[in-house]
Amino acid sequence: QMQLQESGPGRVKPSETLSLTCTVSGASIRNYYCNWIRQPAGKGPEWIGRIYTSGSTNYNPSLKSRATMSVDTSKNQFSLKLSSVTAADTAIYYCAKARDCTNVACYYDSWGQGTLVTVSS
Amino acid sequence: EIVMTQSPATLSLPQGERATLSCRASHSVNINLAWYQKRPGQPHRLLMYDATTRATDIPARFSGSGSGTEFTLTISGLQSEDFAVYYCQQYNQWPSTFGQGTKVEIK
């Protein structure tokens, strides 16, 4: 059974870049869409973006081009960078693997536990 | 983007009762809707996809219905492990969007 685990700093200063990695075990991420989703306190989840193992990416336009995702299939990992962070980026960040997708979006059958990232000086 | 609205925000029921959770989309999402369960300390669990299809190993007491803009998740006979937060998600239109969640708590 595939397991995902997020890792990265729990605190990032305003205007800096948030960097997270998702390490996958139990199965290969090859040929899957790998996603990042976040959830601010008291709000519903927000899809950030996805990366296919070929390297092609799609991002939520709400992030105004601040997000960059990458994948390393040799390490079975994928990563997120979010630049110019503000307090509004404080959230629990989840990585998730898509089970299936329509031609525009996916749903997810494997999630990480999530990691809290706080943007604060 | 499509706004997903879940109701109620909190549902208080005794064990063994039927729970009915609603999810409304601001525009039609056809049947491209998923439901997830989130328990404290556990990863999100996919319950339903394509509005009515149970995911792998999901018990039959979970059922989904609806299409277009109105959807329902029904839990027939709440078990102790079912007290959790439930989210709906549409994947019909980009970007995918989630509801705010319904917390099912023990009464």
Describe the protein.
The complex is a heterodimer of chains A (121) and B (107). By secondary structure, chain A is mostly beta strands. Chain A is built from no helices and eleven strands. In chain A, strand 5 and strand 6 form a beta hairpin. Chain A has strands spanning 3-7, 11-12, 18-25, 33-39, 46-52, 57-59, 67-72, 77-82, 91-101, 106-111, 115-119. In chain A, strands 2, 4, 5, 6, 9, 10 and 11 form a seven-stranded mixed beta sheet that branches. A four-stranded antiparallel beta sheet of chain A has the order 1-3-8-7, with no helix packed on it. The termini of chain A are far apart. In chain B, the strands form two sheets. In chain B, strands 2, 4, 5, 6, 9, 10 and 11 form a seven-stranded mixed beta sheet that branches. A four-stranded antiparallel beta sheet of chain B has the order 1-3-8-7, with no helix packed on it. In chain B, strand 5 (45-49) and strand 6 (53-54) form a beta hairpin.
Shape descriptor of chain A reads globular
SS class of chain B: mainly beta
How much helix, percentage-wise, in residues of chain B?
under 10%
Chain oligomer state: heterodimer
| Uncertain residue ranges of chain A | none
Q: Features of this protein?
A:
heterodimer; A: 121 residues; mainly beta; 7-stranded mixed sheet; 4-stranded antiparallel sheet; 55% strand; globular; B: 107 residues
Secondary-structure topology with pairs:
The complex is a heterodimer of chains A (121) and B (107).
Chain A lengths: L2 E5 L3 E2 L5 E8 L7 E7 L6 E7 L4 E3 L7 E6 L4 E6 L8 E11 L4 E6 L3 E5 L2
Parallel strand pairs in A: 2-11
Antiparallel strand pairs in A: 1-3, 3-8, 4-5, 4-9, 5-6, 7-8, 9-10, 9-11
Chain B lengths: L3 E4 L2 E4 L4 E8 L7 E6 L6 E5 L3 E2 L7 E6 L2 E7 L8 E6 L6 E2 L3 E5 L1
Parallel strand pairs in B: 2-11
Antiparallel strand pairs in B: 1-3, 3-8, 4-5, 4-9, 5-6, 7-8, 9-10, 9-11
Short characterization:
Chain A is 0% helix and 55% strand.
